[in-house]
Amino acid sequence: MSDMNIDVEPTNPSRGDATRARLLDAAHRLFLQHGYHGTSMRQIADAAGLAVGGIYNHFKTKNDIFSAVLDAKHPYRVILPALQQTRAETVEGFVREAGDQVQAAITGLEAQLLPLMFMDVVEFQGRHIGQLAGTILTQFLALFYTLKRLKGNVRRDLPGPVLVLAFGGLVLGYLVLQMLIRGAPETLKPPVASKTWFNGLVEIYLYGIMARPVDPQPEP
Fold this sequence. Notes:
Layout: H1 13-34, H2 41-48, H3 52-55, H4 62-73, H5 76-84, H6 91-106, H7 114-124, H8 127-144, H9 160-181, H10 194-207
Helix pairs in contact: 1-2, 1-4, 5-6, 5-8, 6-10, 8-9, 9-10
């Protein structure tokens, strides 16, 4: 069969969704093993149990598959729904609960997502990440604007995008460092559990690293 012969699949949405998910899982494994350019459409089709033409019912190009894999494997799909259920009434409560949700969602993710992100930066100058970041930022902006409506002394001069990007930088930095220190000597690793470490970063996000000044005692 020619590579461009397209298999005709039933219009049953559940079967189509299952096939698409199978394709993305197969492509994800292959991209991690061989890189983007080292993975062919035929390899993806074989790993997903399809004829090559069957891919084109779901994706026009390998580039579309890569973009869809980044989207499907990104933790925002888990984090955002969880944060939308947050009922905290204070800024501190909201951010700490957000931190717990994020830390649970990204545990172990450095081995699954970061290689794809670095692949995109090296081979595509971050084009796919940039497109995805626009979608994520738009959705998280609406959520983080609620911080200024909660109880707590939030700095009013900080725009919503700054709050989101700073939190995103915290998460990305945590993931990168988790990956970098995995093979480091034990003496160089943080002497605390990952959750404790991440919670410490959340505290820094809330209050910075400077100790609060002690009010001077009034002279007698």
